[in-house]
């Protein structure tokens, strides 16, 4: 009898409940988190119109959703404008799934994916390596976290299929400039596709942020990933999408399961697109909190990287794993960045003022600084 053999490339990935998450640790320690500042979630939540749309859709769940996601894609392009058509869009059950569809559509065993750490490495590996692809790291400049387009171009080989551009970058919160993206795009070989992961793009106020939609409209080799988890406050719904020229978007969409978007997600996404005033409220709120926290970091003399998104990377003299545990003991969940090669850095997801205030007080206390 022959043995059951799995794809050897998935062996590196364990089931999600294998290693303890911050939430698991909390449960084991029987602590109630007062403030969840670890997942870059939206402290204001979704628009009330979205909640209403979900309520309206709920009684119809016995019936399959529409086979096509066209209504959602129409709503998305209405928001994006610029002459984009529904054919430029493919939706996924999360930004993460949009990334996965891109890798499945492009990667064969032995192909290469370039990323620039510290970045959203775990997720990029998870969607690329099971396909037998090799992930190649061309790190950002140390300390400044500036993107290095020439180093990336130098690392491109005939097997390079994808170049991951996380912008704003998670976990650094920094921006890859329009000039650096142009330097990459202008010399990109034809077989390579740039993946601009822009799930935090709404929060950016930097004039040097690249206009990647322009590259899509110019029919270049680029696919942009957006999510409903961040500014739309729908992380629990799992809804995202990609934007690319129609031949790319249609090929990727060909991988979708039948009825791939559930009814609640379709209703929520369409209603979310229809409430751009809520988006503006969230952006204003997050930017104000970012200013407040940065002011507190300045006061406490804590080094941080100027945030372009809804989270801030900061650094202390305490190893991040220790600081994470100490903060957890005070009911504050934050993510240490030792796994991203930054042993003293932590990422704070911006919460509401009470949460941010509680975090700053706890941090000042731990560091022995005067509370604010
Ligand atoms: C850079 C980046 N890309 C993609 C995602 C995936 O977002 P989601 O799967 O919630 O849509 C995240 C989530 O935090 C992220 O930080």
Quick structural gist:
The N and C termini lie far apart (70 Å). 37% of the residues lie in helices and 14% in strands.
Describe the 3D structure.
- By secondary structure, this protein is of the alpha/beta class.
- The chain has 2 domains: 21-43 and 277-367, Aspartate Aminotransferase, domain 1 (Alpha-Beta Complex), CATH 3.90.1150.10; 48-274, Type I PLP-dependent aspartate aminotransferase-like (Major domain) (Aspartate Aminotransferase, domain 2).
- Helix content is 37%, strand content 14%.
- It has 13 helices and 13 strands.
- It has helices spanning 22-28, 48-57, 70-80, 95-106, 121-128, 149-155, 178-186, 212-217, 246-253, 263-273, 276-300, 320-329, 353-367, and strands spanning 35-36, 89-92, 112-115, 134-137, 160-166, 193-197, 222-227, 240-243, 303-304, 311-315, 332-333, 335-336, 345-349.
- It has a 7-stranded mixed beta sheet, with helices on both faces. It has a 4-stranded antiparallel beta sheet with strand order 9-10-13-12. The chain has a two-stranded parallel ribbon with strand order 1-11.
- A hairpin with an 8-residue loop joins strand 12 (335-336) and strand 13.
- Helix 2 runs antiparallel to helix 10 and helix 4 (95-106) packs across helix 5.
- The N and C termini lie far apart (70 Å).
- Residues 40, 94-96, 120, 166, 170, 197, 199, 227, 229, 235, 240 line the site of pyridoxal-5'-phosphate.
């Amino acid at each position: 009898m022959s043995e059951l053999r799995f794809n050897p490339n998935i062996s590196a990935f364990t089931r999600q409940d294998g290693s303890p998450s911050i939430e698991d640790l909390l449960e084991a320690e029987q602590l109630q988190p007062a403030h969840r500042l670890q997942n870059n979630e939206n402290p204001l939540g979704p628009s009330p119109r979205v909640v209403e749309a979900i309520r309206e859709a709920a009684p119809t769940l016995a019936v399959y959703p529409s086979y096509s996601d066209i209504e959602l894609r129409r709503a998305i392009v209405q928001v994006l404008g610029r002459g984009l058509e529904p054919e430029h869009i493919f939706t996924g059950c999360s930004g993460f799934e949009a990334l996965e569809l891109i890798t499945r559509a492009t990667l064969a065993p032995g192909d290469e994916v370039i990323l620039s750490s510290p970045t959203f490495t775990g997720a990029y590996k998870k969607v690329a390596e099971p396909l037998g692809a090799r992930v190649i790291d061309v790190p950002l400049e140390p300390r400044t976290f500036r993107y290095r387009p020439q180093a990336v171009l130098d690392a491109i080989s005939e097997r390079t299929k994808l170049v991951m551009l996380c912008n704003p970058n998670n976990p650094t919160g920094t921006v890859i400039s329009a000039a650096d993206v142009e330097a990459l795009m202008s010399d990109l070989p034809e077989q390579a596709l740039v993946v601009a992961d822009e799930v935090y793009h709404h929060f950016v106020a930097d004039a040097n942020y690249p206009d990647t939609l322009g590259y899509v409209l110019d029919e270049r080799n680029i696919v942009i990933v957006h999510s409903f988890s961040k500014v739309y406050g729908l992380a629990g719904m799992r809804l995202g999408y990609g934007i690319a020229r129609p031949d790319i978007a249609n090929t990727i969409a060909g991988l979708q399961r039948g009825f791939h978007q559930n009814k609640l997600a379709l209703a929520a996404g369409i209603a979310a697109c229809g409430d751009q005033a809520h988006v503006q409220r969230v952006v204003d709120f997050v930017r104000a909190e970012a200013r407040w926290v940065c002011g507190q970091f300045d006061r406490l003399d804590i080094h941080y990287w100027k945030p372009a998104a809804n989270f801030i990377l900061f650094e202390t003299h305490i190893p991040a794993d220790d600081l994470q545990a100490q903060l957890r003991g005070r009911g504050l969940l934050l993510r240490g960045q030792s796994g991203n090669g930054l042993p003293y850095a932590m990422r704070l997801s911006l919460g509401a003022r009470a949460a941010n205030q509680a975090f700053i007080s706890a941090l000042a206390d731990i560091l022995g600084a005067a509370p604010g």
